[in-house]
């Protein structure tokens, strides 16, 4: 069996939405439809302001800009994030400081976080990978006591909640992606949430070349109207998606009997959005690596293989900022990801459960099945 690793979809509403944009004639990033979209985002996720932008990466760049991060400032990030989280830090000529995570989830190791804060530290970017929440209370305490801003890279975490609040509305600025693979897909795109009027105004100016006055720096990060209309039409599909993803994840978890595998941990007062189901394996690194490769051979896609997942400082671009983070290394070497999006059917779920329950960790050749891809 070969399981679909992407959830790309098409519904009739999109046709009407796009027609509305085409009839509007103005397709650029300054049409009234953009404002309409921003109002929808603001109301749906629960923040005072929303700004539509061209990508999740540009959203993070805007956040750093609005918080006044400039050359030589330090920005604390988890090494378990993808490189897109840190590329905007380099764009601002700031310095990414890698801070260790917990051993069993993507939250910061709070002691390591406190130790990493210097006078030059201006912001923390937290990254709930695959939509998994972590302890925000202790994180917010640190931000407050050290007077440091919190940026949430919630590119994968639309509608993940903590204390009944959406992630991306808890820190100072939330940065979302609406890339094809994300929970709200518009092809390419992103948006920013904030409650701060000054940040909102500064970002609005930044994404349209400082309103072309030539007085202040800015660039072009505007989202096009076509994408905004798709976003407005597809925002209505988020709740349905969350329901199906949750149901699929629960089905797998409820039937998982393999004692060596469990879901990664998250706080009681929080709910993941199941962007993917993330499982942690209680076995040696080599065996988990073999398992990830075996999954792919057996038609179960895993992001660990797909993205050659490893701590960010292992990539040449970030090598100079390397700081060994043992928990993050452990975490990245012991997880597998399972797709639970709405294109996964009951047969797929049975197959995944059967596969997970039959894994034989005894030999070096992980996997109870020889290659079963059909
Ligand atoms: C997708 C993603 C980004 C980048 O978003 P783009 O829209 O592709 O630029 C940043 N951070 C995380 C965690 C992501 O998953």
From TrEMBL:
Positions carrying N6-(pyridoxal phosphate)lysine: 182
Organism domain of life: Bacteria
Protein name according to UniProt: dTDP-4-amino-4,6-dideoxygalactose transaminase
Keyword NADP: no
One Pfam family matching this protein: DegT_DnrJ_EryC1
Family: Belongs to the DegT/DnrJ/EryC1 family.
Keyword ATP-binding carried by entry: no
Cross-referenced SUPFAM superfamilies: PLP-dependent transferases
Catalytic site positions: 182 (proton acceptor)
Any Gene Ontology biological process: polysaccharide biosynthetic process
Keywords: Pyridoxal phosphate
Organism: Alkaliphilus peptidifermentans DSM 18978
PANTHER family: DTDP-4-AMINO-4,6-DIDEOXYGALACTOSE TRANSAMINASE, TRANSAMINASE
InterPro entries with a match to the protein in the record: DegT/StrS_aminotransferase (IPR000653), PyrdxlP-dep_Trfase (IPR015424), PyrdxlP-dep_Trfase_major (IPR015421), PyrdxlP-dep_Trfase_small (IPR015422)
Single GO MF descriptor: pyridoxal phosphate binding
């Amino acid at each position: 069996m070969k399981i679909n690793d992407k959830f790309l979809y098409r519904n009739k509403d999109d046709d009407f939405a796009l027609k509305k944009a085409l009839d509007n004639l103005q397709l650029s990033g300054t049409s009234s439809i953009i404002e309409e979209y921003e109002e929808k985002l603001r109301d749906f996720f629960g923040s005072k302001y929303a700004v539509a932008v061209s990508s999740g990466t540009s959203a993070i760049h805007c956040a750093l800009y609005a918080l006044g991060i400039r050359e030589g400032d330090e920005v604390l990030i988890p090494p378990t994030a993808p490189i897109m989280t840190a590329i905007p830090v380099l764009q601002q000529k700031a310095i990414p400081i890698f801070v260790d995570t917990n051993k069993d989830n993507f939250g910061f190791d709070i002691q390591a976080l406190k130790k990493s804060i210097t006078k030059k530290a201006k912001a923390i970017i937290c990254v709930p990978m695959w939509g998994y929440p972590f302890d925000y209370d202790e994180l917010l305490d640190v931000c407050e006591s050290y007077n440091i801003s919190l940026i949430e890279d919630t590119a994968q975490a639309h509608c993940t909640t903590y204390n009944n609040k959406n992630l991306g509305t808890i820190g100072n600025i939330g940065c979302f992606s609406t890339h094809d693979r994300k929970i709200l897909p518009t092809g390419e795109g992103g948006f920013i949430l904030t409650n701060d009027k000054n940040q909102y105004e500064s970002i609005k100016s930044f994404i349209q070349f400082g309103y072309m006055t030539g007085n202040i720096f800015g660039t072009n990060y505007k989202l096009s109207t076509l994408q905004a209309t798709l976003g407005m039409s597809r925002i209505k599909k988020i709740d349905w998606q969350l329901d199906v993803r949750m149901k699929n994840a629960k089905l797998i978890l409820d039937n998982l009997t393999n004692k060596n595998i469990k879901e990664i941990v998250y706080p009681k007062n929080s709910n993941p959005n199941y962007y993917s189901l993330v499982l942690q394996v209680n076995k040696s690194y080599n065996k988990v690596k073999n398992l990830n490769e075996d999954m792919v051979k057996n038609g179960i896609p895993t992001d660990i293989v797909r993205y050659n997942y490893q701590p960010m400082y292992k990539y040449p671009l970030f090598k100079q900022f390397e700081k060994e983070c043992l928990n993050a290394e452990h975490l990245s070497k012991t997880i597998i990801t399972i797709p639970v999006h709405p294109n996964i059917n009951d047969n797929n779920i049975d197959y995944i459960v059967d596969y997970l329950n039959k894994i034989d960790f005894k030999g070096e050749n992980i996997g109870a099945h020889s290659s079963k891809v059909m």
